[in-house]
Structures are given as C-alpha cells and as structure tokens.
Amino acid sequence: MKHKFLVFFAMFFASLALFIWQAPQVHADKTYTIGTDVTFPPFVYANSNNKYVGIDMELIRSIAKEEGFKVNIKPLGFNAAVQSLSSGQIDGVIAGMTITNERKQTLDFSTPYYESGIVMAVAKNSKISNLKDLKGKTVAVKTGTQGATYANSIKNKYGFKVVTFDDSDNVYNDVKTGNSAACFDDSAVLNYGVKTGLGLKIVTKPTDIGQYGFAVKKGQNQKLLKMFNAGLAKLKKNGKYDQIIKKYTGKKATSKTNKSNSEDRTFLGLLKQNGQAITNGIVETLKLTVVSIICATIFGILIGLLGVLPNKFARGLSTTIVYIFRGLPLLVLALFIYNGIPSLTGTKIPAFVAGIITLTLNEGAYTAAFVKGGIEAVDSGQMEAARSLGLPFGKAMRKVILPQGIRIMIPSFINQFIITLKDTSILSIIGILELTQTGKIIIARNLEGFKVWAIIAIIYLVIITVLTLLSNWIERRING
Amino acid sequence: MTNLKVDVTNLNKNYGDNHVLKGIDFKVASNEVVVLIGPSGSGKSTLLRCLNRLEEPTSGSIIIDGQDISNSKTNIDKARENIGMVFQHFNLFNNLTVGQNVELAPTELGKISKDKAAQQAKKLLATVGLADKYNAKPQSLSGGQKQRVAIARALAMNPDIMLFDEPTSALDPEMVGDVLEVMKKLAKNGMTMVVVTHEMGFAKEMADRVVFMADGVVVEEGTPEEVFDHPQNDRTQAFLEKVINV
Ligand SMILES: Nc1ncnc2c1ncn2[C@@H]1O[C@H](COP(=O)(O)OP(=O)(O)OP(=O)(O)O)[C@@H](O)[C@H]1O
Ligand SMILES: [Mg+2]
Hints:
The complex is a heterodimer.
Chain A: H1 2-22, E1 31-36, E2 39-40, E3 44-46, E4 52-53, H2 55-67, E5 70-75, H3 78-86, E6 92-93, H4 101-104, E7 107-109, E8 114-123, E9 138-142, H5 146-158, E10 161-165, H6 168-176, E11 182-186, H7 187-195, E12 200-202, E13 207-212, E14 215-217, H8 222-238, H9 240-249, H10 251-261, H11 267-273, H12 275-306, H13 312-327, H14 330-345, H15 351-377, H16 380-388, H17 393-423, H18 435-446, H19 449-479
Parallel strand pairs in A: 1-5, 1-6, 9-10, 9-11
Antiparallel strand pairs in A: 2-3, 3-4, 7-14, 8-11, 8-12, 8-13
Chain B: E1 4-15, E2 18-29, E3 33-37, H1 44-51, E4 59-64, E5 67-68, H2 76-80, E6 83-86, H3 98-108, H4 114-127, H5 143-155, E7 161-165, H6 173-188, E8 192-196, H7 200-206, E9 209-214, E10 217-222, H8 224-229, H9 234-245
Parallel strand pairs in B: 3-8, 3-9, 6-7, 7-8
Antiparallel strand pairs in B: 1-2, 1-4, 4-5, 9-10
Bound molecules: adenosine-5'-triphosphate and magnesium ion.
The site of adenosine-5'-triphosphate has 11 residues of chain B, from strand 2 and helix 1.
C-alpha cells in the first residue's frame, strides 16, 4: 500500500511536470507575445467590444503587418508586464512606457514613438492650482509610471505625501473622493480622461517631458526590436503614424468617446454592452476553479495521507510542504511561479498553467492540513483495533479510518472549494482574463467602478451559491 | 516446556526516561487463563500491548507460539491474526454495522469467502447472545453489547490466544455479568487467555494463575488461592486490601 501510494504520488508530479513542459511548445515561431496594460487610455484600453485599442495597440499591429510578424497581446498590467518581460515570459512590452536610464539597465528600447509630459490634475471643484498648494496633502499616482517617479522626486520639496495604486481608475477615484488632493499622470492620458468625463481638471503645463518606447529584455529579441524600428519609420513616412495619433488625441477622438459616454449606463445597459466579455470572464473563472479544485484535492489528499504514514520522512515532507505553501501569500506564490521560475529556468509557463499550479499548491496545502487533521481526529483506538486483527496499515486506513475521517473532512472540503473559487480572482495579477480582471478592464474604459464591481460581486455570489448547493447535495449522498 | 503459548524473557520498555517495564519474565501455557492485576500505572496494559506489538518493546524477547514477536523481521500482521485483543473501550468500527465489524478482517485478509464470513459472524454473534444485532450500528448498542461484539470480532480470526485489557472497566455494573459470562465460556472451551482486570470474582473462579505487577516488575504470582488468601509480599497485601474494600 505504502509503495503503491508513493508510485501514484510520483506519477502525479511527473504528469504535472510534463504538462508544464509541453505547454510552451504551443507558441509558434513567428508570433511574439507582447505584454501591455489595458487600463491606460488613450495608449491602451479595451473598447466597448472588448478589443484592445489605443495608440500603442494600433502601432504595434500596424508595424507587425508591415514587417510580417504576428502579435499576441497579453493584458498584464504595467508592473506584471515589465516583470514578465525580464523573466522571459513575454517578448516585448508596449504600454506607454517612458524611456529612462534606470529602465535601460535591464531593457532595450526602440526609437521613441511618442513624446509626452507629466501634468497635475485635481477634482473639478478643487481650489488647488499649483504645486505649492500641495503642502501637507496627499497625491495619488499609478505604480511604476513616470508620474509616480516625478511625484516622488518633488515630494520633499513641496511637502506632500504619495500614495500609489495599481490602476488608473483607482488613482482618479482617490482624487475625486478627496482622499488625495491631486494626481500626476501623463498629459495624453489625463487629457483623454478629462474629455471623457472623468470629473477632474488639469491645472499645470506638461513638465518632465519623456519619450515612450517599445521595450524588449536587454540583449534579447533584437530582431523584434529592429523590425519595430523599421516599421515605425515606415509608418511615420507613409502618414499612418500621424493618422493613429490624431485618431486618439485629436478633437474627433474625444467627440467619439463622448458618444460612448452617452451609452446606456444602467446596470442592464452595462451588462448588455459587456455581456460577451463578462461571459468569457465567467467561463475562465469556472475553468480555473474546476481544474484547480480537482488538482488541489488530489494533491491535498496525497500530502495529507503522507502526513499520517508511519514513517518519519514522509511525515516531515508533508509538514514541510504544508508549511511552505500555506505560509506563502497566494499573490507572492503566483508571481513567483509565473515570473520567478521562468527567469531561472528560461522556460515559459503559460499564465493559465501557472495559475493552476499556484492554486493547486496553495489550496492543496490547506486541503492536506485538514485531511491530516480529519484522519487524526478519528479515535486512535480504531486503528489499534484494526491492526490487532492483523489488518495491514493500508487496509486499516482504507476500510476503517478514511471512511470516518472523510465525514469529518466534508465541511472543510466544501469550504475549501468556495475559497478556491474566490482565490481565482487573485490570478488577475498574472494577466489571466478571469472575472476580476475582466471587471478591471471594463472599468478602465467606462470608469463605472461602483456598478461594474457590483455586477462582478453578484456573479461571484451566484456561482458560490451554485457551488454550495452542489457540495451540499454531494455531502448528503455521501452521508446518506 | 514445549506447550508454552507466551514466553516473555527480560522485557524492558521505556517511554523516554520513564522505565515502565523492568525486565519482565512472563510465561503462559497452552489453554491457561492468566489474570494480571496490579495498581494503576504498574505497566499491565503496556505488557499486554507488547505481546502483539501495539507497543514496541525496548529490549527483551517475546515468543508467541514459537514465533519471535520482538524480531522486526517477523511479519507482525500475520502473527496478530493469531492473537485476539479486546480493549477497555471496545473500539468497534463506527463506520460499519455489527455484522461487518465481525466480517471485516476475515474477508479482507482472504481467510474465508463473504458468504462463509456472514455465516460465521451470525454464529459468533449468537454465542455472545447478540444474534438479533447483526444489522445494527455500533452506536445503537449498550456498552455491554459493544464489548460482546468486540469479543466476537476478535474470535472471527480464530485466534489461539486472547488478550483482554480491562474489558469490563468501562461498563455499567449491570452489564459486567454478561461480558464475564462470555469470557467464562471461552475459558471453559480451552482458550488461552491473558486478562487484565479488577474483577476479583472472575479471577478467583476462572484463573489458573494470578500475576501481581507493581512498578514494572512481577512482584508475585501463583494460583488464586495462593495470591488472594496467602499473599507473600507486603505490596500484594496492601493492594488486595484496597481492592477488596472497594
Ligand atoms: N504512550 C505512552 N507514552 C508515555 N508514557 C506511557 C504511555 N503509555 C503508558 N505510559 C506510562 O507507562 C506507565 C504504565 O502504564 P500502563 O498503561 O501500562 O499502566 P496500567 O498498569 O495499565 O495502568 P491502569 O490500571 O491505569 O490501566 C504509566 O506510568 C504511564 O504513564
Ligand atoms: Mg491499563
């Protein structure tokens, strides 16, 4: 029994490893994976059909067409995109990224494709009109942006505090609600926002002029970089470049978006416009949930059983695994697996697979803990009686201990299933387009934070209700 | 001494610094009924549990039916099939019915077919007076009934020797008689038995030999008359006075 068990254990990991190893081979040779941040209009955002559009998107697509390669756009968020680039998970980043000396240490930039400065925006009714008014106040910025760097460089001089957010939407909201007195952001970005009814006003002239560039990892993908530069030059020559810039920053752009502003903004209207995106998000969330519940349950039971074997090494291994993966924050684990491991091994891990591994390890560790606990909660006299009759350990376990232990574990299993579903939302950090990430992207476009999050929250509750009913039904069948 | 069922020589057991069994010599002949008595903590349960290696002895030799139990190369599962054990708290398998409790080990270990096992279980339950409880759940039984099922379960493996660790201490007084009755029947049928008990009546009536243990050593042993009526050792005397006064 013990041996069979170990063999099964080894097979589980072998197949998992095979799964991970094979996955990268799906990537075709001429397709480049480009990371971006789709909450950065007018450079990158999702339009009402949930297509990724904006200056950066049109540029990279037009250049790809000119130069004859394909792009696969990954909506990762700015920070995750840069990290994924340095770990080799993706080939390039185009996300309104300013070329700085610091970034040049680790990245190679294209020729600049846009020039932009930092401006300060305040709430519409705010009396703050220049930097001096910020004394003692708080200023909101988005992590990793040039606006953030600028704010930090002058905060001591003008005596304000800086708070950072991951999404532009949260930055603007913080200013609107009055938590922060002002925000610093790229002038094109803020201009776009103000014109689409952001509820903020711009009070300074652009300063700290910077240039935007497309980036690859230092020394890598030089061919891609060359093609980008060549393509950009062609677009500038044939007028396509000016066309794109005008489309997103000219008068037309704002009037067009004003129209989208008068879209139906009721709950029903929002649901209708984003129905397809939300459905896709739900499907992705369900896929992640189901696959991770299955993997985490198998993994958890194996590790839990390992923890009750009459073998010191097995028990120590089990305890260690539980200790590590229960102790690591899910977010850290996800980033470590998606970004950390590939930068060490050089093998890409698809986000979905990385997400499943993350949840399997984390939820599996919790499962292992209560599987072990459930078995240990069975009176030790039961095992002694079974062994005294001559039943070997494995048989006693299967016929006497486990049937009683599982009954003790069932409520914990149901609980863990629900937690797994909720934890899939954390995987939005590695750019998986599940329900939460879908919500973020929709909000980046229409800035209807309250309504969209309410819709997303209700969907989660509905799924959790269904999952609970299903689990209770299974529980009744087992106990019945 | 070829008919020795149990032959324990110089058995020692330590729990950390706690020296619980201190060089025990303990023999049981075939068909013999031995009653183990002694104060709480003297090591009676530990000795009993070493006999089927539910506890690992620290040193010494334990030979049962000619087989060296203390040798780690011995197939202990096989050896245990021959050594029935009855616990103070019954330890019936809570997930199984009474019938399944009795049938589990013989069928799982491939001793007999399912049908035969069911027949045998019914017969054994009848001999312990519980023919009508075949389909009952352990939770629905009284303590005395549970203990009789536990005895039937141990007998289903057809053991040569039965170990009892205070089989009646957890029972209401009115239940004790039924269980002792079953044990007496077993003894009369020639079962080799080692019984830890505080039931002095049972010891006087059924024991071939009484062994008194204190502080991890065998202090005194002999026939019930010798030990109960003419104890040689002060500690035996003191113990018996206490027990008989209760
Ligand atoms: N698993 C164990 N770990 C540590 N010490 C133990 C363990 N089992 C028993 N002991 C100790 O061994 C000694 C003998 O215990 P044992 O249970 O054999 O006594 P006993 O004679 O059966 O007593 P009682 O009449 O109370 O059942 C006691 O001091 C007890 O505390
Ligand atoms: Mg005891």
